[in-house]
Structures are given as structure tokens and as C-alpha cells.
Batch of 3 targets.
Target 1
Amino acid sequence: MIIGIPREVKNNENRVSIMPAGVNELVREGHKVLIEKGAGTGSMISDPEYEKYGAIMLDTPKQVYEEAEMILKVKEPVEAEYRLLQRGQSIFTYLHLAANEPLIKVLLEKEITAVAYETVEEKDGSLPLLRPMSEVAGRMSVIIGANLLTKYNGGMGVLLGGIPGVKPAHVVIAGAGTVGINAAKMAVGLGANVTMFDISHKRLAEIDDIFYGKINTVLSSSLNIEEETIKAELFIGAVLLHGKKAPHVLTEECVKQMKKGSVIIDVAIDQGGSVETIDRTTTHDKPTYEKYGVLHYAVPNMPGAVPRTSTIGLTGVTLPYVRLLAEKGVIDACSEDQRLQKGLNTYRGEIINKDLSASVGFTKISG
């Protein structure tokens, strides 16, 4: 198979979808790997490192897209890349389509076979290709939140962990999945007072055991979340519904009651956002905006800020799937592997993923 790796163009996205070791494996197995020059520089990987293991370096993304049978990326194609996608081509990347109807329409119109990292699913319901980036985003959310709480960044001037004689900040985490638990690890480690919400009593019991009761665990409801959040300095939205838009768990009315200078970090922004007052995505260049005196952070590619760690973590888990897709072909691989079946989002002009079609309300473009 001819596999193409273009340079990521999303704002401040410095990750790359393959490491030199991955190129080595694919080339040894008889595949052709095309990489846009400079694709790895943001993750401290030089072009010669790729060439050493047999990659063919191309000058422009147009060359990569035109020749490749399967495009391997980190983030979803942005508008500037839509025209580069070739009819009938395959793509393997994070897509988060439930919150991106313009991209859905492009994929359907061009009959792209799209496999999304975030919907590849193990038998136990876990999401192996989302996990490493969720770990990064969860840990970053607390670091970023702690930084934004400083006065010079617009926050109320609170030290997350406090000091002897001064109470620590109160952190509310909505969602006890991979993002939530990693956020909790960082928040507890920094000495914050942490309350975590989830809809699953079983999951909260597990969290209680993991943290030996150091975290307050509460079953999720609108009232419970509101009561805790209006007392909090930092709110982290970490909810996830597989393939669907994130629900709003924090209402505008609640945000109005939050402390002035408090901070909201919405990690669920990739899936549309979990906070009612998050009405736009932000970027690493301009990460926040203020509403009702509360700082809102809604950057959809948080792990792009630590690209070296993120690239190594991501490509380590995606490579076995890339090898399978390249060996079998995308459709045969998806037919034979139940995990990849869940990852298949669009094929021949139709939405294949049931959760996605239910979320957006259609399976193909009408008319």
C-alpha cells in the first residue's frame, strides 16, 4: 500500500502521525511511505531520520495526497485540506465528526473511506487510540488550569494546592474516564481539593479505591454539578459519549454564578463541548476568552502543545492498526477486525458508524 503522511496544518499542531521506527516496519513489509518534508520537525524528527528507514520525502502536501492510497494523520483535515482529498481515498486519523458536519459532507461527497482513531473500540468498550491523548489532555488540563488561575493570566490569583494555613483550590472534574482520572492524578498531586462526577456508581467506586478516598465522588446530575461548581476555582469538562456530541453538563446559569476569575477547561470541545457557554473553539495562540468573569479554555488539540511526548505515545498505539490496514487493505481489515469495524465512520458516500449517524441525524447527503 502507498501510505501518505502530510504535515499537520491545524493551529499549533506539531504532532506527526508516524515515527521513524514505524516507517521502518512498513517499508520492511513492502509498503511505500510518502512523507511531506518537515512533517516531523515539530516533534523533533528530521527528514533524514525518516529517509534513513526508506521514507520518500515530498515537497508539497499535494504530492502526498495525489499519490497515496491511504492518508495517515493526527488531526482531522481542516478546510484548506478538503480539496486535497482524492475521490475514493482512505484516511486514518482523529476525526471527531459528530461536531463537524462540513467535514462529514466532504468525506461523503468524495466517497472517502474514513477510519477514526477515536472510535476504534476494544471488546471491553475501551478506546485504545484515544487513551494516550486523553491521558495527555487530562494531565495538561490541570497544569493549564493552575497557570490560568494566576493573576497575570486573568485568573483570581489562587495557588492550586494552597500552602499551610491557606486552603487549596477546589477542582471539579465532570467525567471519570481516562481524561478525568488523569486530571485527578495531577490535581491531587498538586494538593487541590477535588470533586469528581460521573453517571456510573461503579466507576466512582473504582475512583474512590484508586485514590483511597482523597477525592470526593458524586453521582452526576445537573443540580449536584451546579452546587459544587459555583464553589470551585477550576472546572474541567471530561465527558465522552462514543462517537456522539458531548452533552452540556455545565449550564450558562451555573457559569454566571461561578467565582470571578475562576477557570473552565473543556477537554470535550473536540466533541462539541460540555459547557453551555463554550460557543467557539480556541487555539494555542489565543487559548481563552472571558464570559461572565470566567476564563474559558476550549483548545481542541491540547496534546499538540507537547508534541514530542504526544507523538511517541500516539504512534506507539496506532502502528499495529496501520500495519493491519496496509496489509489487508482498509475494507478487508475493517471486515476482519471488530475493533477497526467500530472505527469505520464513512464508506462509499455513507455514514457507517451508528453512533455518528444517530448524533448527526443522517447517513448520507440527501438530494
Target 2
Amino acid sequence: MSLAINQTITNSITIPGASYIPGLVFRRFRGEADYPNIWAIISACKEVDGTERTDTLQDVARNYAHLHNCDPYQDMCFAEVGGKVVAYTRGWWETDGDGNWLGFNLGFLVPAWRGRGIGRALLSFIENRLREVAARLIETGQLSASMPRYFNNTASDTETAKEALLLHAGYKPIRHEFNMVRPDLENIPGAPLPLGLEVRPVLPEHYRTIWDASNEAFRDHWGYIPTPEEEFQKMLEDPIFDPTLWRVAWDGDQVAGMVLSFINKAENIEYNRKRGYTENICVRRPWRKRGLAHALIASSLYALKERGMTKAALGVDAENISGALCLYESMGFRVVKRTTIYRKEMRDLIPDTWHLAHDI
């Protein structure tokens, strides 16, 4: 099904099956003029959805300056009621290490306008748009018609409205991720580096080597997607970027493993805490099963404590076959939140029953 575009109203979009709400219109992205709208919608959702976010207008601008596999002028839709933006959605795509083409979508709808069909309409739009993108890639030979294609989304266990929307639209939970927190930075386990390895101060000339090593190390993980150049450039501009906190183990001129810690100062101020993050924990194949991850995490925890932090956090795939969950638990981390990855097979047409569903 192709979306009908109303050419009589600049950039307006007609979404078949959308609920009638007086004053409701759907439109396309208007460039930088929409950054304040995006920021306002995210801010309006975070308390109700239980998501800890401290996005600024500058964060939105930085993110949209480094989009990947996404044309926001085609791959976004905004909902307005009476001229006020109340929701938006954006889609993009990736190919994962298992040979799947994944059409990702995100959306935010201010709580006051939920339960009226706006979220359902936006999801309908973005799914159709991703179908069009996949069809174009197949036509141009950039995507094999035989490659499995899916819609992909995520929702934490506090985002109940989003979970209901996805389940009603036919998405199925396929994987879980845990947010883990170490409630204090006392009694950090001692863990020496394996023989022959050393941790060195990270210099700018190391950034690319470390980035490439991280991409290689994560290839063995479920759902691996190569991190694109756009994300590397965005990392360099991020206010939380602080390589002095990184713990990178070297074996000669080879990166063996790493923990790329950071401190989100704005988040700590908003939530009145002193938390650092031990993230991007990975070890390359030749150096695994030698206790390197244990040693790097311990060193990272000490580094965060030296910066005045009193807690540490990280995210982990709940079914990680490397034993990461057990390792993190042994280092004092405990699960505090669960996020579910949802997936739906991409078909050429939306089932007729979709338009008969009750409003969400």
C-alpha cells in the first residue's frame, strides 16, 4: 500500500485508516524548525514513560546532523492538532550480522493525546514508508529480494502504552535487554590485567583504532549491526565524550579489549545522583577467557569513584552467550529495568484487520 500525499497542502500527508480528530493533520519534517518540537515532545513523554532522558535542543540538532540510512524529509511524520505538534515518528534501516534487513522505527506521542488512534496512524505511516524504502533498494539491486525483512522496535517495561501499541500491531517480543546498576562503588573486586597486556592513556590518534576494534569485537554478539561512520563523528561531538575515563587494554599495537566509560553530568543533576556508566564492554577473540573484561571493569569502577561517582550502570543483552550477565552480577551490578526488542515480519500489505483495531 502506498501512502497518498495531499499536494494541495504543502507537505501534508494523508494516512489511510487514521481516526478522525478535529484539527488533526499529519505532515512532513520541516528541517531545523522542527527541532524544538522534537525536543518538546520527548520531554513531555519521559516522566509518564519512566525513561530517564536529559535531551537538549543541541542534542537533537547533533543527532539529526548524523543520521544514517534515513532521509528525515521522507522518513518522518508529524502529527499536529490545532497547529500544535503532539507526536512524531521516524524510520531508518540496517542490515544485521544474521542477514536480516531491519526497518527500525521510533515514535513519541504526548500523553494527553494517547488513546485516540494517533500512535496507530503514525506506526501505519512509518511501516508503509519502510516498505517503500525496501522496495526501492530491491529495485536498484542494493537489497536481495530473498533477504528476510522485519520491522524492529523496542520498549522498556515502563513504556506500557508503547508495548500495547506494538503488540496490537502484531509485533512479537524476541529478545530482552537489562539495565543494571551497581548501587555503590565500595569493595570493588581486585582484578589484575592478564600477562602481557597494558592499559595506556587514550590519545586522539587512538580513537579510530579503538572504534574499529569495538566493531570487530561485537560481531559475535546477537543482533550485531556495524556502527556507521556517522555515529563515530557524533561520538566525537557528544558532551559525555571523555576518553580519559576509557580503559583500553593493548597487546603491543593491537587493542585487546575495552570499557568506554562516561559520566552524564546533566542526567546526574536532573536525577540528583552521582552515577557513571561502564559501557561498550568488549574483548576481541584472541584475548577472551583470560579475565580481561573483569580487570577492565574493575579499573573503570575505580576511575569513576575517583571522579566522585557513587554508582555505576550499564546495559546488557539478557541472553548474551559470553556470560556477560553473570560477570556483571559478580562485579556487583543488579538488574533494575528490562527493555524488550519487538519484531514483525515485513509484508507487502498491511492486514485488513489493522484498520479495524481499536484506537491506541
Target 3
Amino acid sequence: MRRSILLLLPVSALAHMVSMSTGELKVSGKRAEYELKMPSYEAAHVQNPDVTLLAHIHFRSGGVEGKLLAKSCADRNGTYQCNASYVFPEPVNRIDVECTFASVTVPNHIHMLRADRGDKKDQAVFDISYTTAELRFRPPEPWEIFVKESGAGFLRAAGGLAPLLFLASLALAARSGKELLTITGAFLVGEIAACIVAPRISVGLSPRFIEAAAALTIAYLAFEILLLPQSGQRWAVVGVLGLFHGAYFSLFLVTTGYHVDNFLLGVGVAEIAIVSLLYVARRQVRAPVVPIAAALLLTTGVVWFAVRVWA
């Protein structure tokens, strides 16, 4: 067990559930002003962040990259902030952006960029899978909004380590196909409830708290699988645990301004598909996979919680 904990420490240290930064780009004529805000503990992963961060975001107009005129970076009360000024050869109508912050922070880092040119606005979300975007400063079509927002929900559910580990816990916790449907449904209801209620709560939850709570949900469900294998009303427990995972999605929704229904549709499709595949795979294995996998998940959840609370 001790060896397992040591092996899982590097994974837990890097597996940020909520890793997010925001940017504001203001375009006027040939000039553009960019402001980056990132939690200081995220910037701590970056060597020489005053140089590296701005080197991993590029703005191009008409195929020509903007010339960096001036920049400044500083830590301000727990937020690492960079400001940069760019100039282009011609007045800007649209901008191509390349952002690779995920390659220098943590792999699941998300950068939310909002841009405006006069009264016209646009926005883009970057992660390790989507590193480029075109800002056209025009209202998107309804179908573009649906594809973008539901796709973001799918990727958030399928690409985050904490959601995947909890879905693995659900596949282990289900003692039959019928129970799998019940607990998965309860989990989805918990997530939806959190996304509806959380924005109305005046006390904001920090990303670190949400991540620590999500780690505990994985540990708790694994603990119940190991020590209470015949427990009843497991669906109710899973529904409550779903609230904490929904809090992560709520934080993303508040940051991006995406529509809840579009986003959660993508989340639901991803989670149902993943948990179903994991359950089928588990049923194909004849070895005592449930106690072994549950023990690993319990260890991971406890270590991850400790790292996020005390690191």
C-alpha cells in the first residue's frame, strides 16, 4: 500500500480538476491590448512565467503576427496577471489566436478568452485539444453555439481526470445493469442541480476546494464499495456526491457564460457513454477486479485530497 501511495503522488500533484485562466483582448484599429489572469498556484508550474506565458499565446491578423510592443507581469493578491500591447500592419477585422498554456501549466488547463472590437464581441476556449481559434467579432449562428457549447461539455466530462475516476467508481459500484441506470441517473441529477443552484449562492467556492471535494467523493465511493458491499440506497449517496462534480461544471459555466442546457447535454452524453463502456469492460473481466480497483481509487482519492489541501 505504501508503494502505491508513493506511485500515485506525482499523478495527484498534477491532476488538477479545475485549472483555468481568463483573458481579455481589446482591439482598436491596428492595436490590441491583452490581459491574462491566472491563479498564482497555476503559474507556479511555469518556469519564468513572465516570459513563458506570453510566449505561448499568439495573435495574428491577415496572416501576420502582432508585434509585441510592451508587457508587464506581476503577482497580485493570489492572481498572476500579465498585460501586453500588440500592433498589426493593418486595422484588425478578425484575429487568429493560438494558445498552448496547457503545455506549460497542467494538461487539463483551460484558457477562456473574451475579445471585443468596438461594440462587437467574440470569445474562445482553449485547452490541450483545441489550441487555435478565429475571432470574427460577429454574433455566432445558433447551430455554432450548440456545437461549441455541447462539445465543450463533452470534452470537460471526458477529458478531466476526476470525472473519469468517479465514473470508474460508478461502474464498480453498480451491482447490476439496473442499478447502473439508477446511480448514473442520480449522479446526473446531482450535477444538474449543482449547475442550477451554485450560481445563485452568494458564497463562491474556490477551485481548490472543489477539487479537494471531488477527490473525497472518489475516495468515499471506493470506501463504500470495499467495506459496505451490500449497502442499500447507493443511488442517494451518488446523487449527493454528484453535487460536488456539478460544482466544477458550474464554475466553468459561470466563467464562459455558456448555456446550461447545451453544455449539460454534452456532459450527459459523455458520462453515459463512458460509464457504460467501463461497466461492460468490468463484466468481461473474471478476476476480482472490483476490490483491487476500489482500493486503488480509494488510495488515489485520499492522496489527491491531501495534496490539494496541504500542498
